[in-house]
Amino acid sequence: MNANPQVFDLLIKDAIFITADPKEPLIRDGYLGVTDGKITYLSRKAPASYKATTTLSLSGHFVTPGFVNPHAHSILSMVRGVASDLGFAPSYTPGIPKGTQVNSEQARALAQLGALEALLFGSTVLGDNFVHADTAAQAMSELGMRLCPSWRIHDVDFAKVAHGEWHHDPAIGARTLSAGMALYDNWKGNPLVTVNLAAHAVDTCSESFLKEVAELSAKHNLVVSTHLGQSKVEVQRVKERTGSTSTEVLEETGLLNERLMCGHCIYVTDTDIERMAKSGAHVVHIPKPNATSGRLAPTPKLKAAGINICLATDTQHADMVELMRWALITARVQEGGVDESWQPQHVFHMATMGGAKALGMQETLGSLTVGKAADFVVFNANRPHLTPHVNPVGNLVHTGQGRDVTHVVVAGEFVVRDGMPTRVDMDQIVRSAEKASRELWGAEGVQYWLN
Ligand SMILES: [Zn+2]
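Predict the joint structure of the above. Result:
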């Protein structure tokens, strides 16, 4: 036996670890050690000999990997409580504020609000794409979470889309793509920030533009995020313009591959699903926003085809715990019952490893595994709604909430402690975002915000 004690910056003991690692999915009353931002010990048994700078006894607490939420638009937290009742994505809807109307001070406030909400509820990785990505990425990075930011890139004139006109302009494409690549250059080498490309959707990106994106993705090994089969309008526009489905266009332009994350996937054909499965592309399932608009992706079919599925909150309430429940329940409604392919551990896997895989980070995070990043979430499960602990992952998915999160650790650092962010002032962020939203809605002439 090695006589030298193991040295930890942090040791967590007596907790229930829900690992998302298939080798040992559940470790009761176990020990997790962290050294230099990585998990260096995880076992049911105590280390034979150790020294720890900090030791936490967390009896009755659940510890999970940080949730990976790969598709959000934090600045659009400004449309909370309104947009989901209008029936369509904000960018396509007249009468509500657009990203292009947001100034940089407002962008900063709203991006921090959206990212803070996600972090407090246990997302340690946030994929966020929108306009003002430079300001937003800087503002969000101050929270201490991992980020996969990207500019919303497109060559359509978005000012006209909300009024039913799709006009593609190469100058717009060049401008958005160069902003996207400047963001990549700016953050290259940062251990917590990995820039993606976000080709908005096939109806808002022409084929020649998508080819350019595909070339850059291949050249720099960049993950590409897109909205696929999000709306009937998209399906119709793409059919009129190209004679193909959006999935076919993505394949023809070289984007349908393992670096592509496809958000929504509501309107996809069986042939599209076959193409996606063969390509290794990932589905970003967004069950709550989709269901809120009265629609659902054919998730049981997508899962049965063997496609990697991850979960994301998009423009709505950034609670990944609640979202797992939506994913499970909506799939069961579609299936018409309970079966072995849709169980709590499956949606938990989607919310953790599924997202990590989609972002190309499955080797370094997404599960509680020795050697991976020390990114994890602590839930206080000593509460009536989470007791008894017969099947902890079942409790978490069926009765848990993001509000049950007590601590969030990223790369070994507590970025949320006792439910509060450690690096930023929560009250100040809330006040600034409220002010920014009032200004933006006020500019649209929505008086109830001003009363
Ligand atoms: Zn989206």
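The CA atoms of residues 143 and 210 lie 33 Å apart.
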